[in-house]
Amino acid sequence: MKNDPCFFLHSNTCPRIMTSSNGLILGRSTKCNSEIELFISNPATKSWLPIPTLNCLKENPDFDINIAFECNQDSELGFMLCLFEVPDEWSSSCYGLKFYSQKEGIWKRFEKSFFIGDRPMRFDMHVFYNKAFHFISNCFPFLSKKSLYFRPYIMSYNIEDGGSRMIRLPKEARRGSHDSSCEMGIYKWGKARNSDESICLVRLRKCVFSVWILIDYEASKWRKVLKIRVKAILGMKEEEPIIVRGFIVMNGDYLVFATKKKVYSYGLGYENYMKLQEICDHKFDDDADKVCFTSYSDTLRLCGNGATTLPLMQQAY
């Protein structure tokens, strides 16, 4: 363990990896005084950058943190870190935004708020595309059919002009979305800087995967690339009943999913289309509800100005 570059993440008090982007990890930990601390780390270079704790997190350390993190592809130092603040009024659909200024080392406020509509957003996943952060709503059936927000949808926030915009899901994805077995997620599609880069939508309902790619951003037009029952993917590899406990799209064209015991990848791109690979046993408890994935790739990308060696590294080595 002590030779593990992630030793700090294991050793720190209540560490938690929130998300990652292009080789950098965004994490949170709890100090001895119960104060929340955010940090950006690159385990490959054993470096980290602590982020100043916001007052709202000092006052309410148990609150969920609605945060988006994106490492800039075009800069060795650049990353975007945005916090979406829960409205003071429970009925409000407008979230205030703060972003972390690397140059000044402080949090600053965006002028325009993020309008999310009448459904809660899945802030635990996001896609940065077309200079905007995108989030998908939940599927829970609690709105009137007359509501514009009756079915799930995607909302985006443009970081340049502060505009909020709805992107409609495919009709087929919206149908049956209120079923208790329905779960949806959005992920990056395609390789960085390629012309096919876009947003991928995955729906799992009644043990059937359906996958769409956004092909016309302005018109909210999608192309379906896959619809298949999980049993047909796995064949005789697992006994009935087959239960999917988590999924994600990684590397722009691989559907990675976990069953009760194992993790698999299933190709969605041209070269690997419908090719199944068993990755590993995940070792999670049989009674656990979910298996969560965080994609990560080793790079030498810097954490930013002011970054230092990971705490406890001297003791670890």
UniProtKB/TrEMBL annotation:
InterPro entries: Beta-prop_At3g26010-like (IPR056592), SCF_F-box_component (IPR050796). Residues 17-282 form the F-box protein At3g26010-like beta-propeller domain. Pfam families: b-prop_At3g26010-like. Signal peptide: none annotated. This is F-box protein. It comes from Senna tora.
